[in-house]
Amino acid sequence: MFVLELTYTAPVERVDALLDAHIEWLDAQYAAGVFIASGRKNPRDGGVILAAGVGRAEIEAIAAADPFSTEGVCAYRITEFYATRTADEIAAYREQLPS
Question: How far apart are CA 89 and CA 97, in angstroms?
Answer without folding.
Answer: 20
